[in-house]
Amino acid sequence: MGAFLDKPKTEKHNAHGAGNGLRYGLSSMQGWRVEMEDAHTAVVGIPHGLEDWSFFAVYDGHAGSRVANYCSTHLLEHITNNEDFRATEKPGSALEPSVENVKSGIRTGFLKIDEYMRNFSDLRNGMDRSGSTAVGVMISPEHVYFINCGDSRAVLYRNGQVCFSTQDHKPCNPREKERIQNAGGSVMIQRVNGSLAVSRALGDYDYKCVDGKGPTEQLVSPEPEVCEILRAEEDEFIILACDGIWDVMSNEELCEFVKSRLEVSDDLEKVCNWVVDTCLHKGSRDNMSIVLVCFSNAPKVSDEAVKKDAELDKYLESRVEGKSILFTRNDVIAFLSMKTKLLKAIMPLYVGSNSGMVVCLNFYVSGKNVFKPRGYCILVFHKHFLNVSFRFVLYLYRSKCNLVKCYIS
């Protein structure tokens, strides 16, 4: 946990599917980490009477992939097969579980799978100390159940804005910190006993052995937070992602990015790939996984957006010289004027560099009188020229160009 490669592994695992009025795509990348410890679940049509329900989840493993991989295969069955989830059903009936039974069943399923895995020999004897966060959604015809245990995150984008987000379970949160201290632990450098960065997780049994305390009272709790939201016609998409994504993009930034990409492609795998590529080049050093679930009201491909995107690629290609992209000040002004909406740069963050003065700009695009995050750009000032990199990392990645190195003469 915490070890890095000399260069990132950028091969991706992809999948997609559709059903129950939903479309989904997913992408995962190992990145800079020595091992790939993420896992995911995507089920459209839950077996045994819930065929019009769907379940999606992302698991961010740490100290190994054992727990994450097992949960990706078996968590759903632990949820739907327990007595709390099915409490309102009668044998042979088509009656669906109530909202309270679903929420109770999800919590019970987490506790049951956590106790079940504790008996695995390698986890019991300490040979494997792995754990995993879990974030998921269970989608019924009427509700979306958001499920979170740890610091992965899910967001719902509705009617052009972030409508809901799960809350990260961090040791420094007052409620989490109180439980940790009541179990005899401490929070140091924002970690449980100075070590673990999450306060809720599956596995991590070294933190679940305090005598006299129940499973939800331990240093690390396996209890998920479950919230139900009524579905609405304005629902556009849900994003599930691990902290390798959220570490470098806020809820609003990621949703705006996904929205803009859905306007140029209906390939959800490709959209997810754009996300992980962007996060890698924005500095994420973790494994990266994202599941994108689109409702029928999700943004559609726009001919105008496709045209503008193609024009931008063509313009960038015209500026390639060898393995660098060179822009004059006038080129940057021309690039900004190509956008159909007004772009502005907020106060930059200055960073000293051997290759000149580096300025990180956060571009905002106006819409409905509100400036929304659009992406990042790094400008390297070198005499009278500007070398533009981060805004164009997707192009650089596709064209195999290296980021330009600038030397002060």
TrEMBL record:
Residues 1-14 have a biased composition (Basic and acidic residues). The keyword Chaperone does not apply. The chain crosses the membrane at residues 345-364. It is a lipid-anchor. Pfam families: PP2C (PF00481), PP2C_C (PF07830). PROSITE patterns: PPM_1, PPM_2. It catalyses: O-phospho-L-threonyl-[protein] + H2O = L-threonyl-[protein] + phosphate. Residues 1-20 are annotated as: Disordered. Belongs to the PP2C family. This is protein-serine/threonine phosphatase.
